[in-house]
Amino acid sequence: MTMASKVTALWGPSKVRQHRDCYVWEFSGVLDDGSQAGWRVIFYFDTRAFKVLRTFTRPANKGLTQVDMFPGAKPKHQENTLKEMLRAHIPPAQLAAAIAAAIQYQKGR
Fold first, then answer.
1. Please, what is the end-to-end C-alpha distance for the chain in angstroms?
2. Which residue in 2, 7, 13 sits closest to 77, CA to CA?
3. Contacts 24+ apart (CB under 8 A), 42-49
4. Cα(102)–Cα(58) distance, integer angstroms
5. Going by C-beta distance under 8 Å and a sequence separation of 6 or more, which residues neighbour residue 18?
6. Beta-ladder partners of 21
7. Per-residue pLDDT reduced to its tens digit, 40-64
8. Nearest by Cα to 34 from 7, 71, 13, 73
9. Which of 14, 84, 85, 109 is 20 to 30 A from 95 via CA?
10. SS in 3 state form for 33-82?
11. Number of Cβ atoms within 10 Å of the Cβ of 48
């Protein structure tokens, strides 16, 4: 897998956590070379900025398709920057809750 690999399928968020100073969403997906990857999107309350971290990469399993790897999943195939793809998968209600928490966090500082 190279750093220039493109995401061909994306699922999530599989986990959502609120911390004292940020919200965290976790996603998984498949890259164009067939390998699996995971990402964590962090929304920091103090700066209201998003940061994307790759949490894992697993090599491709030869002969398996995306359906074999994730039965029942319905991936969205998109082309965009990774950050924009991930942000687009965050439900609006969760994004609104994160922004409201950021406002409360900044009021309390």
1. 43
2. 7
3. 43/98, 43/102, 45/21, 45/101, 45/102, 45/105, 45/106, 46/21, 46/102, 46/105, 46/106, 46/109, 48/99, 48/102
4. 34
5. 24, 97, 98, 101
6. none
7. 999 999 999 999 999 999 988 776 6
8. 7
9. 109
10. CCCEEEEEEEEECCCCEEEEEEEEEECCCCCCCHHHHCCCCCCECCCCCH
11. 13
> Edge-to-edge, what's the strand order for the sheet holding 22-31?
7-18, 22-31, 36-44, 49-58
Q: Which two tokens stand for residue 74?
A: 């319905």
Residue with tokens 């004292």: 20
**Of residues 1 and 74, more confidently modeled:** 74
d(CA 23, CA 36): 24
